[in-house]
Every structure is written in structure tokens, then in C-alpha cells.
Amino acid sequence: MVKKKDFNVAIVGGGVCGLTCAATLEKYGIDYAIFEAAPKFGEVGAGVGFGPNAVRVLKELDLLDRIATENSPVERSFVFISGTGEHELVHKYARYPNSLGLGVYRPDFLDALAPLIDPSVTHFSKRCISVSPQVSGRHTLHFSDGTTYEADLVVGADGIKSVTRDAVVGLDQPKHLSYTNTVAYRGLVPIETLKAAGVKTDLVTTPLCWVGMGKHLITFPIQAAKTLNIVAFVADHALPLQPIEWPSAWVEVVPEEELVDQFEGWGNDAMTILRHMKQPSKWHIHAVNPTLPSFIRENIVLAGDAAHGMLPHLGAGAGQGLEDIFVLCRLLCHEQTNATTLQSVLKAYNSIRPQRANMVSEESSRMGGIYDNFGESGYDIQAMQNQLRGMWEPVWQHDIVMEVDAALELLHGKII
User: Fold this and answer.
1) pTM assigned to the model
2) Domains of the chain by range and CATH?
3) What is the DSSP letter of 199?
């Protein structure tokens, strides 16, 4: 790769955000290296939903066709149904122009992008344990195997347990990480298996949110509508959020009986789906809390869950990470960006992204409480419709290109 800039970038984390960042920097000839703690690129075997805002980002980055080889974008109009009884319609979210969404199997996403990345700058089994500044303004990454790496810019895309976040917040400060009193049971089931088992609900046409009291179920098709991605949430909304982490394993495989018992009394289709989730993984969901007022410190910048890990109740966490990467990479790739202007680039990024991503995080948390209050003593259909109306417009209808233009305006002297 011919270097087109006088600075180098270290990307910490090889997930959705890290690989998207690497693929974009590779395309524009920026010197980079990517460090992944695992021995290979690989995400948990589950689906991820991208709303229209995220689909637009992938299209702008010329990555959509690669990602959507088996999953063509469709109008992503969530339908809410009752989890109990006959699964009556509760609310159908209105469709808007350019409202195409996408459901993707996470490993497929990474497999699609990995060939775009230079293997000579891809480093596996590199668990970053700290980041330290140098007098020169560069930063040194320290890895658990004793090795180090210096870079002009560090992109922290190392997820909810981020080490780079600690470097931004300060090691002497609280970790900004909380267990959300929410667990999510995840699994994948062939759609034909569910149809053969008697499920009558349409599982293919649109994503579904099955609502109830203290719990809800999300389903959407992936892998060319052959597989149903399932996430079953159980939460205790009465408990206040505390700055503490779950004391044992955050993710574990549990017997399907535990999941089925949690949803006892739900309707036939819901229970059939849950009974077919063999050995579901149980996730203790954590979030960045309190939200970060800044995603940067010196020449370290956070993106994705490292910056704003959130409850997934708007299906927007991965999309916010893609927005982060889009804005950051467009700024880094701009013709006037060089080593001497990196601080201004990060300030421009930081003037826009925290406000946007933190708003989505807060709304996502609020929506979880709404989904989980339908039933005997909670909302009726009309009340829930009133609560749900218009909830996705601020997320889905966001103009990311305009956001980049605003950041460039800041960068090149009109405000900063």
C-alpha cells in the first residue's frame, strides 16, 4: 500500500467497527495496523440488525454489496405483537422512504470484510492491556504477551470491556460501566424447522418484537431468510442502575429449560420458538454508564461499544458504531488531514458523535421499559401505540453525510 498520509493508525479490536475502519483506511491508503485479542477474526454466532441509517453508511463506504450477498436490504418495519395469547397485533411501525434495513449473521459480516484487509498488518492474539502516551505525542499500545506498538492515532474499537476507554476516561476514574439488570438469551433456529413445528406467525417478512410484562422477544431472519435470529430479554426494571459489573461470566451457555421457564404462560408460537433454542447463550447485558461526555483523549479515539455500549432495545448499537467509523474515516481521509491536524480532526469528531450516540443509548434504555410493560397491569394496545409512535425516526432518518459535512466545516476553520 502506498502511504498517502504522514501518520499511522492502530486499531484495537477486530469486530464490526474495527474491520470496517481497517477496510476503509486500506481503501484510502492510510497506514494502519489492526490488533485482535482472539486468534482469528470471529464474533459470537448470532445475528445483528442494521437500521436504515447503518445501511446508508455501508453504502457510502462501498461495503453494502459485500455485506448483503445473502441478505438483500428490505424495508425494516418492526411489527409489535403480544407475546401471550394469540399474538395479536399491538403496533406496526410506519414505513418511510429509504427505510431499508438489514439482518446479518455476525461471522458473515467479518468474513465479507476480512479479504479487504492487508494480512501483513493484521495481528491476532494481541490483547491490549494498556495505552500510554509518549512525549512525542504518539501512543504506545502494551499487549499481554509483552510486546508493544507505537502509533500516531489509536482507534479504540475493543468493545464493552474496552481497555482504550480506560485510557480515555483515566485510570483513576470510575470505569463508566454498569450491569443493566437485563439478561438476553440468544440463539439461532432454522425457519423451516419452526414452520414444521406449527409456528403460524410470519417470521420472514419483517422483524418482530413480542411484548410482555418484564420481558420481550426479538426475532428477525438472517442468512437469506433461512435462519431465525432470536433474542429473549428478561429485565428487572425496578432495580436502579449501579456502577458495578456482573461478578461472574458475562456470557454462559444455559439449559433451554431455564429460558422456557422464564417465559412460562406465553402464547403457543412464542413458546415453540423458545423450546427450539437448544443450549441458548445467556448474556448479562452491560452498558457504558454514565455515558461519556467525550470520546477522545489526546490521540486516542473511541468508537462503537467502547464509546457507547448500550442496551440493544432499538437495535441501533452496531449502527451507531458504523456511524462513528464513517465520520472518523471521512475526516482522516480528507485531503487536508495530516499529522499536525490530528487533534483538530478528533475535536471535530468529538463535537458531533457523543451527543448523537448518547441520545440513542438513552432512548434505547427507555424503550426497553416500554416493551416490558404490556399486559395485565401495564399498557393496553392503544397506550402502547402512543408510547411507540415515532420512536425510530431520530435513529433511522439521521443524515450521516450532513453530519460529516458539519464535522468538516468544524475541522477546516469555520468554528475550530
Assistant:
1) 0.94
2) 9-73+102-176+289-413 (3.50.50.60), 178-287 (3.30.9.30)
3) -
